[in-house]
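Note to self: the last two entries modelled the partners one at a time, which told us nothing about the interface. This time every component goes in together.
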Amino acid sequence: MKNIDHQLVIIGGGAAGLRAAIEAKKELDDVGLISKVRTLRSHSVSAQGGIAASLANIQESHNDSWEKHLQDTIEGGAGLVDKDAGEVLAKNAGGNVIELERMGVPFSRTEEGKLDQRPFGGHTFPRALYAADRTGHAIVYALYGENVKLETTFYDEYFVLDLMTDGNSVSGLVAYDVRAGELVVFRAGAVILATGGCSQAYQLTSSGTASTGDGLGMALKNGIPLQDMEFIQFHPTGLRDKGILITEAARGEGGYLRNDRGNRFMEKYEPESKELAPRDRVVRAMQREINEGRGIDGKDYLHIDLTHLSSAKIERKLPTIRELALDFANVDPLEQPIPVQPMAHYCMGGIPTDTTGRVQGKEVQDEWQNLYAAGEAACVSVHGANRLGTNSLLEAVTFGKRAGRFAAEQAKPGISGKIDANLVDRYNSRLNSLRKDQGSVRSHELHDGLKETMTEKCGVFRSSEDLTEALDIIHQLQKEYSEKLVIEDRSDNFNTELRTALELGNMLEYSEVIVRAALEREESRGAHYRTDFPDRQDEEWLRHSFFYKNSSGKLRYHYRPVRNST
Amino acid sequence: MEIAFEVSRYNPEEKEGNFYQKFSISARPGNLDDLTVLDSLIRLKEEKDGSLTFRHSCGHGSCGSCAMLINGENRLACKTHLVDLLSQDESRVKVSPLPGFPVIKDLVVDLGSLFEHDREIKPYLVGSDKTSPEEENLQTPEELAPIQEATKCIMCGACTSSCPTYWDNKKYLGPAAFVRAFRWESDSRDESEGERMEVLNDKRGGVWGCNKVFNCNDACPKDIDTVGVIEKLKRKALGF
Ligand SMILES: Cc1cc2nc3c(=O)[nH]c(=O)nc-3n(C[C@H](O)[C@H](O)[C@H](O)COP(=O)(O)OP(=O)(O)OC[C@H]3O[C@@H](n4cnc5c(N)ncnc54)[C@H](O)[C@@H]3O)c2cc1C
Ligand code: FES
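The predicted structure of the combined assembly is written out below.
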């Protein structure tokens, strides 16, 4: 077993983790960044549309302000945005994106060379900065370059299994070096979780195969609560039957949604904002059209129509969309509408943190000393019940940066914790037995069961009946996972089947929380819609949910009020 | 219909050494244009042999994980449709790891040198602090245009893997590093004063090793004109 020490260890090399590392490197000599896929393969590279900031530097946006950005964010979040966190997000957006520009992000420009911005749903001004439709890729590559310059130490293709903790402090973590096939113990003065989203629990998702919520699984194992997990965002325009996103910028640039009759049905549901209404509303309108038989050919998809846009505009602003539609749907958007359907996209909930990124415990007062979280894995509560497009890359860099800064402070005194030999032994024997045991169920079979359940019973529309069934199925899947799992690949060397099985373990844990939280919230708000409780109930439900496991592994929960002051 | 696959297998823990394993999967003829090589590999792993190993992540050509040699050409498995591979003369799909890099297992190669070479060309903006934090650097669309194509690079390694100079000389930085170097060197905001060009001008590692075989252009899944980029760097190295 190898043992590696760093002042600070960051788990995750997407936008949040990379931004955290840069900030931490200003204070510390020695920062390690671990990623289960090579850093540049992180999901953030797939983000297309843009990153929000109220720069007010162009004609169309000169009346914009950070206050209006905050206002839009709060409105989009359907009452559950914590105002202090939202303010940090909106107020610092300008400075934070200009920093990205100065690190070399090739943002698209106006004729005079200023940072251009385009409209996005729920934002009252055009404030999405973009790099064609490769914004995430552009940001990750610039942040990565900066880390190369600063000499951050990368550990690529290491899979983190668990944290080493003692009370409310973290002393390091246990990881599996996939290539070497061995356990590695990292000790650190502080740890940042930037493990990204969890949409792989759903059938159709825009997220890559690495978005398996491992950080959420680790949190649950260590008694840390997950906040607001009932709020899963479905994106209106996923390419039909594929896990591929058609960015909202396609609507921002003027695209129309049409049903089987060729009608622009959003005019009926949202006469004011039409296609650019917040995502939860667009998705429900689409699902209604489909359920009422107005999907294309009566099937479960609709069209996004870009044919009225000029080819020059598509070439310049949406080149990837054209490429994806041609490659994966055999459709040229210049001439034909693109077949789309809603799909799982983003998790508003996550590991609760304060505005410095510090992880919160079961109660507000039992904050963790030196454990931080940022990006999609975290819930600092800037998205509330529904995230606005382009706010999450902003969240990842804003709170990644803050977590980097504050965690570096905590890490300065140095490494103190001991190696938890019991924990290491436990994982050693777990990994060995996983590869030796004779079981009867492969992990992809269980994963298929989970995805189907989550999609059908905990999707866009939910009900007590469906959610109760989902819970039963998930318990059954958890049981099969622990009793019957078999891994065909028995080798030590680069065992991706083993990695997938470990990810599934995490998915089965947090999915239970998503379903339980959805079942308990007997109202409809933002992305969470209950057919049996269709109204928003502010008297009772203007509060955040926190679900955690007690020492005997039972799920417990409570609620806390929204922070409305700054 | 049944589609025949031949997939390169190698695991240093096993005695057999490297060999091609035959598989077949069934697909409805009408569905062929829907099925990619990556979809097929995932199905083989799930249905036939759980130890078959390959990398993938985004599934749509944006992360660069899944480059491999498919019917004789370096391509992204997730963007290669079976219908484009099969024809009257070609009835099988043959998949091997990217050439030119050490194989770790099956279709997984060690791309360490690709990323090492990338570090050598300084993949970041040199001297970027041009303005106060309140203001952005100005960069007109005309200034951005020359690097636009090179910013598409996803570091999949397909180009460098296809380069005969790189096969013979592992010190040669290779087309991927040159595309990445060009992206930063030609950025109107970059202020390097020859330090990047010095690396690119190196006798053994630099751009002069390019013999314009054009394999790299054919291999690039993002249609980057790699040879064109290298030619521009050569002219710059000569002081034009
Ligand atoms: C297709 C798509 C398009 C999007 N477009 C936009 C957009 O235009 N604008 C916007 O604001 N948002 C967008 N989003 C959302 C946004 O991209 C994500 O929320 C954001 O990129 C998340 O960044 P992150 O750094 O938190 O996580 P990620 O980028 O997902 O990175 C997670 C990291 O953690 C690592 N990791 C995870 N688990 C482990 C483990 N067990 N061990 C070791 N490492 C681990 C991974 O390897 C990876 O490096 C989009 C999302 C999707 C799906
Ligand atoms: S899986 Fe990302 S490029 Fe193929």
